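Budget justification note: compute hours in this period were largely spent on complex prediction jobs such as the one shown. Inputs:
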Amino acid sequence: MKKFTYYFKVWWMMSKNSFLTMLNHRIGVFVFMTGKILRFVFFGVFIYFLLSKIDTLAGYSFHQTLFFFLTFNLIDVISQFLYREAYRFRGLIVTGNFDLVLIKPINALFRSLMGGADILDFFTIPPLIGIICYVGIQLGPTTGQVILYILLVLNGLVIATAFHIAVLSMGIITLEIDHTIMIYRDLTNLGKLPIDIYKQPIKGILTYLIPVGTMITLPAKVIMGLVTPISIAASFALGVLMIVLSLKFWNLALKKYTSASS
Amino acid sequence: MKKYFSIFKISFAQEFAYRVNFIMWRVRNVLQILLVFFLWSAVYTNPQTELFGYNREKILTYVFGIFILRALVLSSGSVDIAGEIARGDLTNYLLKPINYIKYWFTRGISSKVLNLGFATVEILILYFFLKPEFFIQTNPLQLLFFLSAVILAVVMFFSLLVLVNFITFWLPEGGWASQFLIIVIFTEFLSGAVFPIDILPQTIQNILYSLPFPYLLFFPLQIYLGKLSTQATLQGLAISGMWMTVLIVAMRRMWASGIKKYSAVGR
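Corresponding output:
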């Protein structure tokens, strides 16, 4: 508990600094925020007009399709809010400044992953949760389904964390972060809509190999009562497995760090 | 002219210097097309479906057409202009006997040639795996109109991108945000890159047609698919031409006043 409080204080301090830095670019922040909201609105509008002409998409109604899109956004926005620092990691590696992170009395992974929360994304989380509640109610879930949904969203965030750790680890080894993380985002973007729209082998890859389905589609399906207990158990097991493997990969990558340029 | 040809050759070689970056960028493009392809495939599962004025063959041609046109119209290195102005690196170019706008246009052409080459190979690979139905336009007049619309789109997008980057003269920290809003968000959604504009209600379409965005990707593809009458095509080409002129004039004026504002901060 003492350790948790310590890390929370550090996170709070780093997030505050990140917020203050952002305040220096008020106009840019406003324009960027507008862009993010518009992207969400434009895609929502597209789903609305598309589903107004066709009854279902891969067997899902308008509200169901919208719920997949909203769940994708929730996991995407929370992971960007928490792990924005990963996007700045390359600079630390190529300059050798990662040395300064390693010598501090703080976990290097924690600092590299959560060293600068993105407050812009934080502001979009409450309204997003409000919309999810509104659309979710239209689907008439039971209390048990809602609890499972929350747990599976948390599991989705665990998988997202594992992906981010893997990207950072690859960054140490290959010095390449920017495109790898964008490829991760493009892959998760495939979960904007239910993965049932994809054909094999892509559907299989998205379910088992790069588990975008487990991360995004499965939580949404729970609310619709379309998931078996075995799938739920398997998805939690996958979450644990992925985080363990990613941590092992991180430890391996740390040993490969050469401190070049420092 | 000779010096711009040298810039073209150097830029081309430079793209190969960062091979992993380039390959990763192309991988991203392929991933982005998958969502759109499978989405429309799911909508048009029944080959007889006719929706929003498209059948399965035409909508899949639209998806692949977007892939090619993105490589041709939307690929450009000019996104770096904002950084060069903000860091003061622009000074290096001002000291050289080259026109800064022509320099970036040449680099853009080099980027387009490379991207188009890769996109063509990727299309062949995707065709092999996905086996989509294609609509082949054989009318020479339509193909000529299509080519004209694409050329106008290339110049239009370049001018728009440079114009947005020039905002950095006045807002040194605002260049990235403006690019995100206008180039990433508006261009992606309002040019038809994510979905065809004609699925929207007519009123919204009419508003969009008065903006430059639909003429970047959507309009050329409508010509290719033979969805427009000759009169509508000529009218669209005239509007494209008008927007191209407006954007070029605005770009030149912004450059002229921006360069007076430029103080080489960071140098």
